[in-house]
Amino acid sequence: MLRIVVPLVLSLLLCGTVAAEPLHGIAMHGEPALPPDYKHFPYVNPDVKKGGKITYGVVGTFDNLNPFILKSMRTTARGMWDPEYGNLVYDSLMQRSRDEPFTLYGLLAETVEWDEARSFIQFNLNPKAKWSDGQPVTPEDVMFTFDLLRDKGLPRYSIPLKTVAKMEKAGEYSVRLTFNDEANRETPLILGLFPVLPKHALDPETFDRTSLTPPVGSGPYKVKTIKPGESITYERDPNYWGKDIPAKIGTDNYDQITVQYFLQDTSLFEAFKKGDVDLYPEGNPGHWANAYDFPAATSGAVIKDVFTPKLPSGMFGFVFNTRRPIFADPKVREGLSLVFDFEWANKNLYSGAYKRTQSFWQNSELSSFGIPASAAELALLGPIKDKIAPAILDGTYKLPVTDSSGRDRNVLKQAVDLLKRGGYTIQGGKMADASGHQLAFEIMTQNADQEKLAIAYQRSLQTIGITVSIRTVDDSQYQSRTNSRDYDMIIKAYVSTLSPGIEQVGRWSSAVRAKEGNDTFAGANDPDLDTLIDHLLRVRSTEEFTAAVRAYDRLLLSGHYVLPLYHIGQQWVARSKRIGHPDTMPLYGYQLPVWWDASVQ
Fold first, then answer.
1. Rg of the chain's alpha carbons, rounded to an integer?
2. pTM of the predicted model, to two decimals?
């Protein structure tokens, strides 16, 4: 009898049919910080009086209200499904806490269930969840959405959904997803952040076409008015189903939210100065120091806030498109990286405000900068460690510090030596290959600030016989050319989090290198990067995760895909005095969805 019972129990455990305990929250590593009876997130004002309005300003245009499809992915109206302004029209299954590295709490899904191996996840919907037309949100909606996004959605949705082996209704309000071997430990959390779309209000045949028809959503706002390319206004849904659940207390505080579009940042700032826009996130230290002498700022009607989040630096820099033959050799990329004189640019363009970025996760425990590889890292790397520069491996690597002249001879000599190893030498004053073809490329920029950086770089490259052209294009052309990978070099920011995961596939995996709709701007094609991405997605403990990210950081740095520029370590926001925010700031910095109109308090 015992021989029958034991295999049966094991079988039940393996197939996941043993009842799992419903959970109020799930974390990538460890346990959620907030208990099951938590009342609200720690960074909100739970007593805020809702009402009033806010106007945001953005540079660009829009011709679409569907944020989930490839077509017009760069010109979808802001606010529909928005990491900065909030998901105004659609709710996700779960809500991310911005005060923890990667933890989700219940939203459309009141609770979830999974096993220790994370071989499945079951979303148990809140019975109170409703669409804006009054219809209930159902398990059929979830399954419809996942089928639709798998077949017609952006890669960020379709790729994770390919890991689902089986999807089934598991009760009146429940959906269970069972994963295949392509899934990893982050997969259930990624799917928890997915939207749910209304089966009764969408036509799958036309889903992948752009549309300006206001949709049926489950979120706190509905589309009020649309002026294509100019503005979109949202109004609070008075019947929003989720206004009293803990993850939504203290959020979505305005009665009306408007997003205004501008052709240039200078026009946006002028609108802010006049009071037509209520908020201006600042990224330029010179502008932050010198541009706020207009009447509203000097009178106190405009307030300048400085926030210091506990975030890694990320990586902002010139990105080499390694699909171009001239950038295929990492020694060439390394040599070209040395030519940029950060000290000159920081002194002459930014009044010394910036720090040089040396790691994708600088200022956090995940960074490899200044830290020798541990035994755990070396074991994880195995033979891959031979591809990593010894100085990066032992933690002594640091980008050279110049004399800030723009033509430091010692540093330029190092660059020339590296370029020689990549097949280029100076011939008749020109840096050329063995066939006599000069090393030349174009830097595509988006705005005047990027153009200044490019000009500084151009000037230094000219000193060693490299010709660079600079082309500043409008937003629509920039998005079109980046989507089609039609560029030599661009300037990009790679935002880093304390829980890097599946987004690294979209940035650095060779599997998506040739696809549109992702962030593979450098076009990396390295199976060892793929291996390390897989490692960081599969590790279980915090210690293993730290070792995996550091090892991955070292290989990225050794590949010289990005010429690292700088970071500031602060967030700057100018706002109308009428706009208020909580005193408590979460781990990830300020959160606009929890701000409010102080005039109604």
1. 25
2. 0.81
